[in-house]
Amino acid sequence: MNRIYLVSGASGHLGSTLVKRLLEKGEKIRALVLAGEEKFIPEGVEIYTGDVRKIETLKEFFHNEDNNELIVLHCAGVITIASRENPIVHEVNVEGTRNMLKMALNSKVKKMVHVASVHAIKENENGEVNTEPEEFFPDQLGDQYARSKAEAVNLCIEYAKKGLDVSYVMPSGIFGPGDVRKNNHTVRSIYAMFKGLIPIGIEGGFDFVDVRDAAEGIILCSEKGRKGEGYILSGHYIRTIDLVNGANKLCGRKETNIQVSYKFVRFFAPFMEKVFLFFGNKKPLVTPYSIDILNTNGHFSHEKASRELGYQPREVMNTLRDMKEELKIV
What we know:
7-stranded parallel sheet
């Protein structure tokens, strides 16, 4: 009997990093990608074209005539910071997850790990560090993306009760090397910091985790995660001005003490988003939601993942150094 890892969303930043790590470990992998994304998958991986929104396209991906040990790592998802709601977010993040859970249950997979997000958590308003909640309340979350992730987690809990051995992980803000498709908002922002295009900070910050650590956490969860349980895969809280100065330090520039107030940037954020869109940039760096995140309680504990899974994230400066090297910035 062979062990096969089924990775959805395998062409994304996290999914491709996960595939790379599994290859390093000598594992057998099936990658699920949308048509046209096959070029992002390395050699040595079985490629399946499909769409999580269309359950009939998943049958070949889940086939198991030889009764192999199937481990599903569900990374496919739509991440958005846009103000305008998009029906695709719910279709992929909720209904797509429902389809993956159905197929996993019917295919009698050994283990499934769903990649959720810390945004699914209703943050503590009293400033206490956020930990894994016992319940998730999508209706109490204001953003479409956050709601969709909370709904998907509730589906995982429902399917665990039906007998599926499914766990879920909740990474914080993912950044790091390997974003071949240039879709990661945080990576693009840090690239701009390296170039000196973002020379000052914005009041506030968030927790960021290296994509390689998040990928390792998913693998650890597939090995040790408890059925129906969730694990925060956070890294370290960092202020935006410290990110800017980290980039400045690596690029040999002077540090800055200048921070723009949250209220000032938030006031202009809707206009800035419209300007980006007007000039054809479908993925603006600044939106009201991207600024609001910096003014929330962005402190998340990975104590449970460290205790139960052996998860340990690296320091932020190590990630920035690797990103600078990858981007070949002098």
